[in-house]
Amino acid sequence: MTQDHPTGSGTATEAPWRPARTVAVVLAGGTGSRVGLGIPKQLVKIAGKPIIEHTVAVFEAAPEIDDILVLMAPGYVDDARRILDAAGFRKVRRVVAGGDTRSDTTRLALDLIGPDDCNVLFHDAVRPLVSGRIVRECVNALWTYAAVDVAIPSADTIVEVDDDDCITGIPVRSRLRRGQTPQAFRSPTIRQAYRLAADDPHFAATDDCGVVLRYLPDVPIKVIDGADENIKVTHPVDVHLVDKLFQLAAARVPRLVDEARYTEELTGRTMVVFGGSYGIGHELTELARRHGAQVFPVSRSTTGTHVERDADVRAALTAAYEATGRIDHVVVTAGILEKGALAEMDEATIDRLLQVNFVGPVTVARYALPYLQQTKGQLLLYTSSSYTRGRARYALYSATKAALVNLTQALADEWAEFGVRVNCVNPERTATPMRTRAFGAEPEHTLLAAETVARASLDVLLSDLTGQVIDVRRSGGQAVPATADEPVLPTQPGPDRAGLPATN
Fold it and tell me: Is 492 a domain residue?
């Protein structure tokens, strides 16, 4: 259990708090009736995975969390258990049916945890965008406070109304917060609150901090900052909003600790790079080779390989397989950028854009699957910031890049049963020959180096990520992959900046 110990006093109890462990309780008891999809909302797939899997993954990755309990809607426990078992989560200890009410489920969770003094975090399963930062701050706050809530300021004015829907009051907005989860407690505190609640015939509660506030009014409840992205999937529109947030969010890129680890991981592996003659594809080829991988770069200019042609793609994959007996990674950096208004483009240009930028990756994916299935490998595609909104004079380029994001997430879902991962890298404007041809010379300090994007790509290929869009961007003057705990939305440059990364 990794925690930061604050200095100073202000503890809610006199005795030093020494928890034996920290337990995350994922509350998945809802039936999803308001979503209207016929299954509990926590089982609905977003960004290629069930919501509950996304949520549990956050606590699995948090070093502050030791154990995870999942309280599932009755009748769906086996479904949840299959999902979480398949994901390989090591911290999940129990998946059991929840109670009839939220408070019943909390009591059940406390019974399962046992009598030890520990930290307990209760989190809604249908808040899949909770961040590692929020989890960490909740746990750290428990060194000082016995109860912790998560909330964000209200952007709207709140009004109180009577039975006739007439305003009776308007609270001062600066003192109002919108509650989220997790809610975190020292286990003796939440147990005592529920013991007192059990003696109240009028007890009713929808959240656990409310129970502490009512029955232990002398216990301070610390509020830490939540996040706008940490929304709860409740209504049908929420499914679409969260799906879009996942699509826009920058995944965390796992970085290996040293160069020797790259060699250890890559030695003996085979990589095929479509579009490997220059730019990002070339840099990735050279980098992987230096660390022991057998890399087969192909392109129109060097090997006469057209990604949109079935025969060319099959030939490239067959040659690599016959030479090494395996294919672990297939990368598609091939792409073209043609500027101009759609109405002014001739049919040949339109066809070329669509064929190379979209049909090509689809063709590679189709023929790569049997090879990647053997090695439990990964397909890596490339998009651009223009996938989030189409831009004038780049209509087809933007459209094909958006299509690749959807293709990534769909294939990650389809191929999960085969153990094949699919991801998509989204670099900022990158110094490549293709970009230079399209935009001319640009100040070097404003562009990512192709080698930087290649390094981030290699990290993705060696990770367990799947179905993710990984941003690679400049930060503080240095080009780095986005690695913040909070989801980071891609920058939306203006039309004059174009914001288009260059693949090959």
Answer: no
* Backbone conformation region of residue 167, classed left if phi is above 0, alpha if psi is from -120 to 50, else beta: beta
* pLDDT tens per residue, range 371-422: 999 999 999 999 987 787 788 888 999 999 999 999 998 999 899 889 999 9
Encode burial over 183-222: b for 16+ CB neighbours within 10 A, e otherwise. bbbbbebbbbbbeebeeeeeeebebbbbbbbebbeebbbb
351 vs 327: CA distance, rounded Å: 30
| CA-wise closest residue to 109 among 150, 147, 70 | 70
Q: Answer yes or no: are the C-beta atoms of 104 and 98 closer than 8 Å.
A: yes
Looking at the structure, do residues 278 and 160 belong to the same domain, yes or no? no
Residue 499 falls inside a structural domain: no
| Preceding amide of 182 cis, omega within 30 | yes
Read off the pLDDT of residues 25-41 as tens digits, 9 standing for 90 and up.
999 987 655 555 668 99
110 residue type, one letter: L
Tokens of 225: 């900052």
Domain boundary (206, 239, 272) is at 239
Query: What is the helix (H) or strand (E) element at residue 273, kind and residue range?
Result: strand 270-274
Token output for 76: 């769906």
pTM over the 0.85 mark: no
Q: Are residues 385 and 324 part of one domain?
A: yes
Structurally, the chain folds into a number of domains equal to: 2
Q: What is the CA radius of gyration of the chain?
A: 26
Q: Could you tell me if 229 and 297 lie in one domain?
A: no
Q: What is the CATH number of the domain that holds 197?
A: 3.90.550.10
Q: Output the six-digit token pair for 179.
A: 């509650």
**Which is it for the CA torsion 351, 355, 359, 363, positive or negative?**
positive
Place of tokens 């610390």: 222
Quote the domain boundaries for residue 33. Answer: 22-239
Q: What angle do CA 384, 386, 390 make, to 5 degrees?
A: 150
What letter represents residue 30's amino acid?
G
Strand, helix or coil at 94? strand
